[in-house]
Write a structure and sequence with these properties.
Length: 436
């Protein structure tokens, strides 16, 4: 028996082939062909695993997007005026005055236990990129239009998907979270000196494809794989109003976003085997963020900035992340998630020198779990979280290249229940350079 993989010029597997000697007895030949099919399916499963972890939330949804926002416990809808506004509130980009590029890194590790046993989970590691691009227009549009770009790039993968067995308990909102590329593009217009509006999209990578098992003229079993990375878009809309020079309001709407995977396995083996293979479908959701609407206020008094936010999350629209593999198979039970409201509070101390500016910040939010309970029969397990955030910033002015350095740390403490307990820490840092 001979086995090999054919590679396309870009290194992807284009074809897997298994052949068997036709001189063997017919029963042995049938067994070899069935074994070949089994091996082909194993190759397919490996390919899908390589290309595509469970249905976790995105990095912006779970932690906040950007170093400052994460250090402020996910607030920023009323104050962000740089690349972070692409997620926090696109309208804030209308207050951007300088072109700036940002490079950052986010990392995190988990320490969780499920059903009394330690839960091994892959850490979170990703690159953060941002750009603030106020448009240099004159006349009535001077200092009123701006664009922003934001990228979260998990190291080593574009998109990941893992489908546990239906009866196996798991943590769909925590397992291998933030393992999908997130891209945000936004624009903003300042209608008056105090009012701005903005909009943009959040783009997530998704995977679609087909794998064909077929027999060639010699009776050899082959498999061909065609996989495509596609994009799922969801809107982000916002408005910001400065009631006074000290009091700011921000409102943001985010549409539901999801990263799906769907690979169909077709068996077209003709008379190579004495039965017909059904079509298999490997499909589900690798990442899901619910529809959200939030309102935030921020108040500046002296060296201190206070921010408070309420975020509504439409988790009741969440569907089971794993779908049946064959037509007519029993679908998984509905998750029965409920909608939640997340309160956030943060403060920031500011010190402005002649050329050096310091910021120290911190905050808290309570992430209410959308799962109805953690009973012994449930397989989709989650827990509410108490989250403490800390951060800092150093901003240095220079005639040649003004720069900014920021860092943050968050600790997510799960509110223990009868199934899950523990916590996880996430931190990050970034450097920004102003472009003259």
């Amino acid at each position: 028996m001979r086995r090999w993989l054919d590679l396309s010029p870009d290194g992807r597997v284009a074809q897997a082939r298994v052949t068997a000697s036709s001189a063997a007895p017919s029963l042995l030949a049938l067994g070899q062909k069935l074994f070949a099919i089994f091996r082909s399916i194993r190759v397919i499963a490996a390919l899908v695993a390589l290309l595509c972890a469970s249905s976790g939330a995105s990095e912006p949804e779970r932690i906040g997007f950007g170093i400052r926002s994460s250090g402020l416990a996910g607030t920023g809808a009323a104050t962000a005026d740089d690349y972070e506004a692409t997620y926090a509130n696109p309208a804030g980009l209308a207050w951007a005055r300088h072109r700036r590029l940002t490079l950052g890194y986010v990392m995190g590790e988990f320490d969780l236990a499920l059903d009394g046993a330690s839960r091994s989970m892959e850490g979170t590691y990703g690159i953060l990129l941002g750009a603030d691009l106020p448009l240099p227009l004159g006349g009535p549009l001077q200092d009123r239009l701006a664009l922003g770009l934001g990228f979260y790039l998990p190291t080593g993968v574009i998109n990941r998907a893992r489908a546990p067995l239906p009866d196996k308990p798991w943590l769909p909102l925590l397992d291998s979270t933030t393992q999908t590329v997130s891209v945000m593009v936004s624009g903003a217009l300042r209608l008056t000196d105090r009012l701005g509006i903005g909009g943009g999209v959040l783009a997530l990578a998704a995977l679609e494809g087909v794998i064909r098992l077929q027999a060639d003229a010699a009776g050899h079993t082959t498999s061909q794989s065609e996989q495509q990375l596609i994009t799922d878009f969801s809107p982000i809309l916002g408005a910001r109003l400065d009631l006074t020079s000290a009091l700011h309001l921000g409102a943001t709407f985010r549409g539901a976003s999801q990263s799906r995977y769907h690979t169909v396995i077709e068996g077209k083996l003709g008379n190579s085997v004495p039965f017909a293979l059904p079509a298999f479908s490997i499909q589900g959701t690798s990442q899901y963020d619910p529809l959200q609407a939030l309102l935030e206020s921020a108040y500046q008094r002296g060296h201190w900035l206070f921010a408070a936010q309420l975020t509504y999350k439409h988790w009741s629209a969440y569907v089971h992340p794993n779908q049946p593999a064959t037509a007519g198979a029993t679908p998984p039970p509905p998750p029965e998630f409920h909608d939640t409201v997340v309160p956030r509070a943060a403060l920031e101390w500011q010190h402005d020198g002649k050329r050096v500016h310091w910021r120290a910040r911190g905050g808290y939010f309570f992430e209410w779990s959308p799962t109805p309970d953690a009973g012994p029969t449930r397989t989709l397990i989650d827990a509410s979280q108490h989250v403490i955030a800390l951060g800092g910033e150093l901003n240095v002015e220079s005639r040649h290249a003004p720069f900014r350095v920021e860092l943050f740390f968050q600790w997510h403490q799960l509110q223990p229940n009868e199934r899950v307990r523990g916590g996880f820490g996430v931190g990050g840092l970034s450097a920004s350079v102003e472009l003259k």
